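CORE FACILITY INTAKE
Project code: CF-77B
Contact: R.S. (postdoc)
Sample description: multi-component assembly, two entities in total
Requested service: structural model of the whole complex
Turnaround: standard
Below are the sequence entries exactly as provided by the requester. Do not edit them.
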Amino acid sequence: MYTEKQIWQWLEEVCDPELPVLSITDLGMVRKVEISGNNEITISITPTYSGCPAMDMIKGNIKEKLLRHGIVQVNIVQSLSPAWTTDWMTEREKKN
Amino acid sequence: MLPNQSSNQSTNQPPNQQSNKATERPTNQSTDQPTNHSTNQPPRQSTTLPINQSTNQPVNQLISYLLFLADNALIIGHRNSQWCGHGPVLEQDIALTNIALDQIGQARYFYQYAAELTNQLTNQPVNQSTNQPTNQSTEDTLAYLRDTRAFKNCLLVEQRNGDWGKTIARQFLFSAYQYFLYRQLQNSKDERIAAISARSLKETTYHLRWSSEWMIRLGDGTKESHSRMAMALDELWPYTAELFTPVDYEKQMWEEGIGANCTNLHDEWQQKVQEVLAEAGLSLNNVNSTPGGLSGKEGIHTEHLGCLLAEMQFLQRAYPDCSW
């Protein structure tokens, strides 16, 4: 039904609530996108720092974005390991 | 009729009967618990952990260890957050507030893990209409509904902010400890503790650097800044001994390869602290030991924690389950 590539593209449109010019994929916050056998989608995200207050909002934004494309059931898990660093950011992101 | 709450006595909670009498609310005939008029449910309480009758300690030492880690982070995070809007200059106000946010974030991760384990262990009865456990432990119940005796933070972090120098000294002494603690814990056999610690270590590395620089700036500063730092060290030093005195759950976690070793920590910490104090031109005149009879890690705190919690927990306790 949906490809991993398609979902990554949609996730590129989800932005950091505090700095809307940055997307969560460019920030390196999206770790993994998995589609299981029965079309269950699991997205693994990681916080930039422990106290990041935007995580709940980002989860909500991801769900909303995918819902707009017809995906109703999506599991979002937080992955802490390996820990996020600025190395995870793309070059485009760093220029911003 | 709801199944009985665990009949084991907790050292940490007052018996239910006493709090019922204080509020004099009508009781639910079948559960003997006071009812909340709007939800008709017994008020949410911090979950009583099952206790080993002979040692009087929580059955699950891992939960105690997690609470110890979480409480440390929450209390110092809360203390630092009290500076928000009151910092000496804007940049440092923001720096310390960000540090507080890091610490509260760390606390949240440990509380979430502790809550999950507590729920698994205590097998909560389920509310028939919502299908949710009736007395579920969450990061919020752990932070806002436990009283001083249940908190396992060390005495150092609950000390009052005092002036900027005292806050810096407290942060430095504690960050040095947390740095070496997380460095050990990132190799914990418990994967989740290892992950949280690896994440936290990156932030604590900065906290240590920031507070070290301020120790030097103030210690090797003016006559006044120097004397304030000397006074701060005098006041806080007695509380550092506790950091390296392991209590039961720490010993057990170390044996299981999950927790850190206090003695190793002490050597590394001592070295770092002496290095920075030397550069700051500060020395230790007063090598008191921990005030007698107190053990924050075991719930026996200074008077300051009570006041801190009264303020921090007031809203949640006055308006249980309040939401935006």
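Facility notes:
- Chain B is about 55% helix and 0% strand.
- Residues 1-47 of chain B have pLDDT under 50 and may be disordered.
Invoice: internal transfer
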